[in-house]
Automatic annotation (TrEMBL):
PROSITE patterns: ZF_CCHC. This is CCHC-type domain-containing protein. Gene3D superfamilies: Zinc finger, CCHC-type. Keywords: Metal-binding, Repeat, Zinc, Zinc-finger. The lineage of its organism: Eukaryota, Fungi, Dikarya, Ascomycota, Pezizomycotina. PANTHER family: DNA-BINDING PROTEIN. GO terms for molecular function: nucleic acid binding; zinc ion binding. It comes from Hortaea werneckii.
Amino acid sequence: MASGWDDVRAPLSNAWQADDSAAAPETSFSGSFSPENVSKHANGDFGAGAADGGCRICHEDGHFARDCPDKKDTGECYNCGEVGHNKAECQNPRVEREFTGECNFCGQPGHRRVDCPNKPAETCKVCRQEGHIAANCTANRMFAEFQNLGIQDMSAEEAWKMLQEADKDKDVIDIKKAILSYVKAWPEVTFEELENVFRESEMHTHLIAKEQEVSDTHTIVNLAGKQDQKFVVSIQFSEKPRRAAFAAGWPPSKEENLVRLSQAGWPMDRMVPKCVNCNVGHFSRDCPEREPEICRNCQKEGHRAKDCTEERVIICRNCDGQGHTA
C-alpha cells in the first residue's frame, strides 16, 4: 500500500470531531454568583448602613463605630486609670499602677523583666564591660570602631603610607581604614587637619562635610570619639559634587567645608534599642508604658484570644462585626 504526505488518516471513532454530531453537556451557569459565594457585606446584613458604610454598633448611617454615641465604655485607660477613653485619647497626667503581670525572664509575678533580680548583669555593647548599658557608656566610640573594623596597631608613618596607596587606587573602604589606622597611631588628628594635608599633598581624596540626616538609632562621631556631631563626613574625589544626587547638603565653598569638618564625623550605631511604644532606649517588651494585652474574644486584659477561656466569638477581621468571618 502506497503512502505519502497526501494520505490522510481516518479519525478514530472515539476521537474528537469538529462537527455538531455530539451535543455539549448542559450547564446551569447564568453568569451570576451562587448565594454561598456572595459576600454577606453586599446586602448590608453585617455592619448595616448603605453599602456597609454605617455604624456597626447602632446600625445607623452618618458615623463610624468609633464615634458612636451608643458605644459602650472602654476599659480603664492605661495612662490614668479612668474609664471612657484609651491612652491615645488621654489628656490626664500618668498615674503609676502596680504591676501585676509576670516577668517574661524568670516567670515570677510582681515585676517586669527590666527590674528582674534574677537577670544576669548587663553587658555594654560598646566597650563589652559589665555593669552598664550602651546608653550610659562613656568609652570612646572611635576606639570601639577600631576593634569592630579590626584596625591593627602600626606607626603613624606606616599608616600614612597605607593612606597614600589607598588614595592612588581611589578605594574608599581602604581609605577609611587607613584614616582610622592613622588616627589610632595619632589620636590628636582632626578631620579638618587631614583635609588640609590632602590638599597640600594634591591627593585625590576629599573629606566633604555634608548636611545629612541619620536615624535616631545612630549618632555622628568625630575622630576624638565625641558623639552627636552636626555634619556627616563623606569621602569624595572632587571638591564639587559630580552628580546632582550628591549635591544635597554639599558645602557651598572650601572655607565652609573646613568649618563644617570641625563639627563633623561618621555615623555609628548608638547600640541603644528603640522602643516602638515610647521611643526611649529599651525594648518594647521592657517598656513601663506598654499597653496591656486585650483579648480580642472577651475584651478583657491580661491574655490573648488564643488563651481565652470564654465562649468563642466569631469576629470578622475586616469589619470587626460578630457572627461571621472576613
